[in-house]
Design a protein that fits this description.
With about 110 residues, the protein is an all-alpha fold. It has five helices and no strands. The chain has one domain. The protein is about 65% helix and about 0% strand. Helix 2 crosses helix 4.
Length: about 110
């Protein structure tokens, strides 16, 4: 159960980090999905976190487990974005199927 919470919260952190990066560098807005996968996979590889090893599932290459877990984390960003879209009624972007992030208002 804790492992699912870790993956879900990693997905939330990935989603918000990607939104922050998009606000910081608007030129990468069209590559939001790619950036999401890169950030999610990088997070699980750096943390060396694999659901397969946590659940005792044997795979041939242990480091591949962290990469696959990163893909799972990236996939779980979609329900988070859907939840935020439902709560805020944002429109979908061209690169995303659900919701659009609104930039943080900057003080003058």
């Amino acid at each position: 159960m804790y492992d699912f919470a870790i993956v879900a919260l990693l997905a939330l952190g990935t989603l918000k980090l990607v939104d922050f990066l998009i606000d910081l560098v608007p030129a990468i807005r069209q590559f939001r999905t790619l950036v999401t996968f890169v950030v999610a996979i990088a997070a699980t590889v750096v943390l060396d976190y694999s659901l397969f090893s946590r659940w005792g599932i044997g795979i041939d290459n242990d480091s591949l487990g962290a990469w696959i877990t990163g893909v799972m984390v990236a996939g779980l960003t979609v329900p988070w974005r859907a939840l935020f879209s439902y709560l805020t009624h944002d429109q979908a972007e061209r690169d995303e199927t659900l919701g659009e992030h609104r930039p943080v208002a900057r003080a003058a």
